[in-house]
Each structure stands twice: as structure tokens, then as C-alpha cells.
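Practice problem 4.
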């Protein structure tokens, strides 16, 4: 599902309303990037407001990494505009970059330094004033749960704690925007839970972009999600709208005895019935859920009810549908 012009107009209207109510920390307009003749990012536009955690998804080669590099100021765009906290990234690069905290997939930590030494070094790199370095470092250590490990060598810490140190350096200068690239890769379940909690807490006061291939990570952490494919944004919705989409408009029925599709098709609100076998069917509906009427029909026909459940998609199914459609179409055509 490509984002249509009408959808973009609706998004623009939503953006206007959002700008009135919240502070926009990232504004991306018609951002493009060519590598020679190859168009890697094709005129994408989106925004990020304070208090939002945006899940940025895409298959390998979709243009996600290129877009992230441009937004973080590490790659010049071929066209378009990026504003960070109201500051144009191209015209006033140094000032705009000061508003960004960035954690790449491989944390930029020095294993031979202690946590305190490393954060002190990062504070100077971020141009934190001498008077503010101590309070800034203390605040980052507390927010990232690094109390008690300040004097330990980073190389002797677990992967989870090294990720925490990486996030600490990203928020040390209290940036408006924090960009996190695969922050939970290689962590155990307890460490993942801790990092998720930290991201949600950071999202209360910052704007967060979370780039990840772990789709449950997005549902557990983000307030919005967008998917890029072939350089274009093909999906952009809030998590609330996504949940409605995942719920769908179909129920799955299973019975003890073989069911009669023609009888089910006569029920109100049932738009179509798809056979899944002699005793199973998918009933698509318009409007209200017809589960009560279906159950009554099963009882009247003496089919014996085994299962009657609202069908739910997963984010993985939506992702695959949007990013594999062209490949599937090409295979079918061949």
C-alpha cells in the first residue's frame, strides 16, 4: 500500500494540527538521495514530535540506513530539507547536529576506558560546558542505570551495559532528538526489557527514532511506525491505528460437523465467506462483529462450535505484505 497523494494531503493536515499542539523536533520534506543513477531514497516526508517514539522499519536495501544517515547529518541529501528542532540541518549543520544524540548499531565505546572516563570524554566532544559536565554526566548515568559501574573498564562490561553506556553518550548533552539504531541486538531477554523501559522513558521528554529489524520491539516501545521500501514510505501510522488494522475485519470459525458456506453467507454483516476446509471458514464482515449471530447459526444448524475468534494479523504479516508484494507479483508473472 503506497502512500497516495490524498493520504499525503491528510498527513499534511494532521501535521498542521500537530504543529499547533506539540513541538515538532524533526521535519523531513521531500528527502531524496541518489548513488550515481540509483535512487536510494525517493522524496520521503515525515515529522517527529516531542514525546514520540517512531519505529523506522524497512528490509535490507530499502533506503532505511541511507535515510538515517541523512537525518543524523552523516550524509548529504541529493534533494529535500531536514530541520532538527527548527534548525535547518544543511544551512546550520553544527547547530542542528548539537540537537541530535545518536547510537549506531555498534556502540562507539572505548573498551580500555572506564565508564566515567568515556562519558567525560564524550561530554567534551559534545561541547558541554565545564560547569555542566559533572551534572550532565550524573544525569546520564542515573537515567541509564549505570550507577556502580563508573570505575569499571567498558571492555569488562556485559553487552547490555555497553549498550547502556552507548545510550548515555547519546543523551549526555540533553539533545532534543535521539536516534537509536538496533539498540537491543545481541541482548538477553532481561537486558532487552531494561533497554525498552529506558527508551520509553526517554520518549517522554525527547523525540526518538528507533531503527530495528525486531518487529515486536516496535510494538512494545513505539508510538508510531513507518516502513520504507524501494526508497518510498509505504506505511505510516500511529500504533493505535496499526492496532485497529491488525485486528482486521474477519472471524475464523471451526465446527465439529461440516459446515454449509451458503448458510453462512446469508447472515447479516457477513460480506464474504472463505472456506478453509470442510469444518473451517473465514467470515469477513462489514460493520459490527457478527460473532453472536454466527454462534447462534452454528447452534441452530447443530454443527457444534469448536472455535469462533476474531482474526488478528501481526506486524510481521503487514511488513511482509508491503515489502514482498512486488516480488510475489514478479514471480506470479513469470
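Answer key:
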Amino acid at each position: 500500500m503506497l502512500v497516495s497523494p490524498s493520504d499525503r494531503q491528510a498527513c499534511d493536515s494532521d501535521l498542521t494540527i500537530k504543529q499547533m499542539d506539540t513541538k515538532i523536533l524533526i521535519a523531513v520534506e521531500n528527502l531524496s538521495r541518489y548513488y550515481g543513477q540509483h535512487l536510494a531514497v525517493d522524496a520521503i516526508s515525515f515529522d517527529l514530535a516531542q514525546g514520540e517514539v517512531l519505529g523506522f522499519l524497512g528490509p535490507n536495501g530499502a533506503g532505511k540506513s541511507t535515510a538515517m544517515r541523512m537525518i543524523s547529518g552523516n550524509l548529504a541529501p541529493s534533494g529535500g530539507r531536514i530541520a532538527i528542532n527548527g534548525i535547518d540541518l544543511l544551512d546550520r549543520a553544527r547547530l542542528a547536529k548539537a540537537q541530535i544524540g545518536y547510537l549506531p548499531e555498534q556502540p562507539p565505546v572505548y573498551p580500555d576506558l572506564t565508564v566515567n572516563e568515556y562519558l567525560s570524554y564524550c561530554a567534551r566532544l559534545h561541547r558541554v560546558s565545564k560547569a555542566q559536565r559533572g551534572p550532565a554526566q550524573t544525569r546520564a548515568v542515573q537515567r541509564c542505570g549505570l550507577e556502580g559501574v563508573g570505575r569499571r573498564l567498558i571492555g569488562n562490561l556485559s553487552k547490555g551495559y555497553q549498550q547502556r553506556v552507548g545510550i548515555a553518550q547519546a543523551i549526555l548533552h540533553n539533545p532534543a532528538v535521539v536516534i537509536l539504531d538496533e539498540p537491543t541486538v545481541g541482548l538477553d531477554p532481561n537486558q532487552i526489557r531494561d533497554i525498552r523501559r529506558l527508551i520509553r522513558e526517554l520518549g517522554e521528554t525527547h523525540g526518538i527514532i528507533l531503527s530495528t529489524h525486531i518487529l515486536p520491539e516496535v510494538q512494545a516501545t513505539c508510538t508510531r511506525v513507518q516502513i520504507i521500501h524501494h526508497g518510498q514510505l509505504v506505511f505510516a501510522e500511529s500504533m493505535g491505528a496499526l492496532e485497529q488494522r491488525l485486528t482486521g475485519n474477519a472471524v475464523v470459525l471451526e465446527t465439529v460437523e461440516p459446515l454449509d458456506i451458503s448458510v453462512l453467507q446469508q447472515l447479516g454483516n457477513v460480506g464474504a465467506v472463505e472456506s478453509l476446509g470442510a469444518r473451517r471458514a473465514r467470515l469477513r464482515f462489514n460493520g459490527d462483529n457478527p460473532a453472536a449471530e454466527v454462534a447462534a447459526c452454528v447452534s441452530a444448524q447443530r454443527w457444534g462450535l469448536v472455535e469462533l475468534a476474531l482474526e488478528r494479523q501481526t506486524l510481521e504479516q503487514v511488513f511482509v505484505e508491503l515489502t514482498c508484494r512486488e516480488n510475489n507479483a514478479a514471480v506470479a508473472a513469470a
